[in-house]
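Translate structure to sequence.
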């Protein structure tokens, strides 16, 4: 695995750890942060896959745009489309007033991120 791929993976894992920690916080869990970090973890894992395949990394944050690019090379990524759809807006949505995640939404996002990250780990032979 090339070094840049490894950096993407490490950053993605950091976001996943942060999402888990915040979800399980006993005092004042920040469910908005859980949703944000799950989207970030998924995005970085998708970019790790592109990096490892030698593809340029687009400067986009849309999970659906990344899926469209990746599925041209590996159609099996469509298996995680529903999870990516769930997290699509979380990179921006919960950072601003007017939107707040609750525990159920945070749990769904965390489970979706776990599935996406596990799927990409297998693709990267991790």
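Result:
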């Amino acid at each position: 695995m090339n070094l840049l791929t490894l950096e993407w993976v490490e950053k993605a894992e950091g976001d996943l750890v942060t999402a888990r920690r915040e979800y399980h916080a006993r005092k004042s869990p920040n469910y908005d942060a859980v949703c944000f970090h799950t989207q970030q973890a998924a995005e970085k894992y998708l970019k790790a896959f592109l990096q490892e395949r030698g593809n340029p990394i687009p400067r986009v944050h849309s999970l659906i745009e990344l899926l469209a690019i990746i599925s041209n090379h590996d159609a099996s990524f469509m298996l995680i489309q529903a999870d990516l759809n769930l997290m699509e807006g979380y990179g921006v949505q919960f950072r601003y007033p007017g939107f707040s995640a609750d525990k159920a939404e945070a749990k769904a996002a965390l489970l979706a991120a776990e599935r996406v990250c596990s799927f990409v780990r297998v693709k990267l032979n991790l």
